[in-house]
Amino acid sequence: MKIYLLYLFVTCSLLTACNNKPAEKNTKSTSESPTQEVKDEKSTATGKEPVCFRYFGNRDSVYLQLSEVYGTMTGMLLVKNYQKDRNVGTLEGKMAGDVLIANYTFKSEGMMSTRQVAFKKKGNDYIEGFGDVSEVNGKMIFKDPANLKFDETRIFVNVPCKN
């Protein structure tokens, strides 16, 4: 009889333990969308939400979205210059002090291109940088990043990100 009770106790304990595991694994709400899960996972991995900026001037409009992912700045850039084709693409680069130097891969006039872009952090905003460039392996890069000029009239103001 003691063995039977011991066997019954062990079986009940195992069944109880087995029933608890599925409930522990399924801690996410079923109402969360896959997009929300990816967003939550990215936020947890990097600890930073995307930050957005906008420039308006001379009938030009530029939208910049940046995220830091493991020390690398990634994002999206949308350029709508007055009386020119718009271009949109992704960028990836590194901060060197308060300056972001990034490769901007974009589509314009039906062609994919890559060029370097530069932005200097000033408070909550960024200022676009310019300098002499040369083509290296099909990509336009700055000849001397140390001599970039930052145009104080092209300030990218921090704005809420579009969803």
Q: Helices and strands: which structural class?
A: alpha+beta
What is the 3D form? globular
**Uncertain residue segments:** 1-47
Helical percent range?
10-25%
Number of helices: 2
Mean pLDDT: 77
Question: DSSP strand (E) fraction?
Answer: over 45%
What distance separates the N and C termini? 66 Å
Question: Can you describe this structure?
Answer:
This protein has 163 residues and is α+β, with helices and mostly antiparallel strands. Helices cover 23% and strands 51% of the residues. It contains 2 helices and 10 strands. The chain has helices at 2-25, 34-46; strands at 51-57, 60-69, 72-80, 87-96, 99-108, 111-122, 125-130, 133-136, 139-142, 149-159. An 8-stranded antiparallel beta barrel has the order 1-2-3-4-5-6-7-10. A two-stranded antiparallel sheet has the order 8-9. The termini are far apart. Mean pLDDT is 77; it is low at 1-47.
